[in-house]
Amino acid sequence: MADIQNCDSCSINPLDLFERVTTQGEKVRSLKAEKASKDEIDTAVKSLLSLKLSYKTVTGQDYKANSPPIDFTPMNNGSAMAEDEDFVDPWTVQTSNAKGIDYDKLLVRFGSSKIDNELINRIERVTGKKPHHFLRTGIFFSHRDMNQILDAYENKKPFYLYTGRGPSSEAMHVGHLIPFIFTKWLQEVFNVPLVIQLTDDEKYLWKDLTIEKAYQYAVENAKDIIACGFDINKTFIFSDLDYLGKSPGFYKNIVKVQKHVTFNQVKGIFGFSDSDCIGKISFPAIQAAPAFSSSFPLIFKETKGVQCLIPCAIDQDPYFRMTRDVAPRIGYPKPALLHSIFFPALQGAQTKMSASDPNSSIFLTDTPKQIKTKINKHAFSGGKDTVEEHRKYGGNCDVDVSYMYLTFFLEDDDKLEQMKQAYTNGALLTGELKKLLIETLQPLIAAHQQRRKEVTEEMVKEFMTPRKLAFDF
Ligand code: TRP
């Protein structure tokens, strides 16, 4: 066993250390069971104690059997998973339940915290603004360290926002807008810089795409993102394929992360195998680096360690659990996170939508007629088969996709609640519910298309140029 005490504790990973303590504990137990010599046992115990001490130094927590360090718990999505368990990683979201993923269970499995009323009220108190309806309706439902961000904000300490998108095709659907709509609100309410990463490199590595196509999709997606209304003076959008070669600060952070994460760990977190290309294996470091402010020297100048807040869908959490684990070991604050639930496919909440199946969602390019047809034809209904039965027994909002979509896009809480009741008691029919959704989405998509048309090439270029933003650091 290596001499832990003498090695640089910063280079040991908490999870490795946890496993070493566990193994050493087992060794001590078996030596005792075998009635080994006192000397032998004493040496093993000494080594165990020193490992426990290192564990405490690295994680700040006492070693507890069967409870690995929180930020680095592997997801255990593998084969040992029980059949009724949900599966969530950055590439796959799968559940056998028509209601969708069990998010309460996910909170426990991922070890994140619930966004409860107390936190929502605090956000309202601190900002003086009415909380976004994504918070009120539980669409952003989970967080890590959001209270630290609010503390910083109250103490007038700066922070910044970081989010992103993997440009896998030109076509974005309404679900893709969720993190951006919310991020725009956060930017407005807190008045902070925002960086948006377009991982064209990731899509090149994972999909059957050329480098040129991936970059082209990044630029096209940037237009849809800009159309969400971000402030050009406060937002930097970057393509990895482009920015990585321009910013030594960014690359240095990538290398720092790469040095502190082992192949074993990424295998545990992301399920990579020996036959995955090395590009995939090292990619998580590239998604981690924007969470460190020194990756953006033109924005933050010499100011070191500006705290970062990442709004994202919960499937991205594995990247940021890794980032949070590494951060203190390379001298940076851990990024805070706000997690959203998934946007369901039209066919039902069992799965995430796929950009390659045009009927699985409403696309930002759909015409009013397409929106109407898709919803009427494909939106999974929780209603009963006949009007008589529906009136008698009522519909089931828990599995009804039109209702779910309305929780995302109908901002009027009272109206939503009234609808839920009317649908549940049978007064509102499926056709009527669908009509409401169609009438909500048609103007929303049309307005998006109009704003996208107004995004000029010059604007895209400006958003994507590394530069100082409207903040003095
Ligand atoms: N990997 C993400 C995707 O495929 C893109 C991404 C990069 C991202 N950085 C992010 C998403 C930060 C949320 C927050 O969509």
From TrEMBL:
This is Tryptophan--tRNA ligase, cytoplasmic. Gene3D superfamilies: HUPs, S15/NS1, RNA-binding, Tyrosyl-Transfer RNA Synthetase. NCBIfam families: trpS. It comes from the Eukaryota. Pfam families: tRNA-synt_1b (PF00579), WHEP-TRS (PF00458). Keywords: Aminoacyl-tRNA synthetase, ATP-binding, Ligase, Nucleotide-binding, Phosphoprotein, Protein biosynthesis. It is an enzyme of class 6 (ligase). It comes from Sphenodon punctatus (Tuatara).
